[in-house]
Specification:
Strand order of the largest sheet: 6-7-8-3-9-10
Radius of gyration: 24 Å
Oligomer: single chain
GO molecular function: ATP binding; ATP hydrolysis activity
Number of helices: 10
Structural class: alpha/beta
Strand content: 25-35%
CATH topology of the largest domain: Rossmann fold
Number of strands: 14
Protein name: ABC transporter ATP-binding protein
Pfam family, one: ABC_tran
Distance between the termini: 38 Å
Organism: Hansschlegelia plantiphila
CATH superfamily of the largest domain: P-loop containing nucleotide triphosphate hydrolases
Largest sheet: 6 strands, mixed
Helix content: 25-40%
CATH class of the largest domain: Alpha Beta
Order of helices and strands: EEEHEEHEHHHEHEHEEHEEEHEH
Keywords: ATP-binding, Nucleotide-binding, Transport
Number of domains: 2
Length: 308
């Protein structure tokens, strides 16, 4: 089955000369949750805006379910729902009216049952008659999501969807996203919350300075680039790593009461056996030990900071 989104050599250069995107190549499969990570100004929102028909690309091609986003923009756009970063709603409309109107914008016939289901799924049903201006920030965010889902899109873009929202809404949204994926909806998520990508995504893309520097299955990414740390709680503190242990990647922590050994999870050997042997030979004893795997956040920071 062909991917639902196919991007080839997509670039965007603004009139100021700023290269926001540089020859992006990317495919996204049907029904997957794809997280796009990157620092501010990396090009995440520009990429989403191009795919949603808000910004015109300078070069390259993008297809949504086979429809070119420029030449066949109506068909492409009808398949897409977008939840933007900004809270942009008509403050004096009711929740029901604004969500129903959004459905009509895409030429969909009235279907109160669909609107009701969307509102109930987002815990908005009891607010259906309330005007937008009376809602809390979190509820307004839910309305944005409801508007994006009203025309039953097959692709949903979430651009920093939980920025500034409470923990309860974030959890509700995670549950909603998983439910949508189960119905076959493809979800593309940009986020600054690394734990959000780690929790939800099937695949991770990292963008920096307009370039897509990596796309990888989340589990494979953490396995390939992750490093483990073995922390030894010493019986007696050290003032420095003894010279006879210089061949190991060691660092002192907690005023010398811990010895931290970092090793590559992909190496043929971890080196732990040799380390323990050398520790015993040096007369260094420990009370306890524990291991820690690199988090996705640590991997992401390392990838971006390594870029020139």
């Amino acid at each position: 089955m062909p991917p639902i989104i196919s991007i080839s050599k997509l670039s965007k250069t603004y009139a100021t000369g700023h290269h926001a995107l540089k020859a992006i190549d990317l495919t996204i499969d049907r029904g997957e949750i794809f997280a796009l990570l990157g620092p501010n100004g990396a090009g995440k929102t520009t990429l989403i805006s191009i795919l949603c028909g808000i910004v015109t690309p300078s070069e390259g091609e993008a297809l949504v379910d086979g429809h070119d986003i420029v030449r066949d923009y109506r068909a492409a756009r009808s398949l897409i729902g977008l939840v933007p970063q900004e809270l942009t709603t008509d403050h004096f409309e009711s929740v029901w009216s604004t969500v129903t109107f959004s459905r009509g914008l895409f030429g969909k016939p009235k279907n109160p049952a669909v609107v009701e289901k969307v509102l109930r799924d987002l815990s908005l049903w009891d607010k259906k008659d309330a005007t937008i201006r009376t809602l809390s920030g979190g509820m307004k965010r839910r309305v944005l999501i409801a508007k994006a889902l009203a025309h039953e899109p097959r692709v949903l873009f979430l651009d920093e969807p939980t920025a500034g929202v409470d923990v309860e809404l974030r959890r509700d949204m995670w549950a909603l996203v998983r439910g949508l994926r189960e119905t076959g909806v493809t979800i593309i998520l940009t986020t600054h919350y690394i734990e959000e990508a780690e929790e939800m995504a099937d695949r991770i893309g990292v963008i920096s300075k307009g370039e897509l520097i990596l796309t990888e299955n989340k589990t494979d990414l953490m396995t390939k680039l992750g490093r483990k740390q073995l922390t030894l709680n010493l019986q007696e503190p050290l003032t420095a790593v003894p010279p006879q242990l210089a061949g190991h990647d060691l660092a002192l922590a907690k005023d010398g009461s811990e010895l931290v050994y970092t090793y590559d999870t992909q190496g043929d050997r971890t080196g732990i056996t040799g380390l323990l042997t050398d520790l015993a030979a040096a007369g260094i004893h420990f009370r306890d030990l524990q291991t820690k795997q690199s988090s996705l956040e640590e991997i992401f920071v390392g990838l971006v900071s390594d870029r020139p």
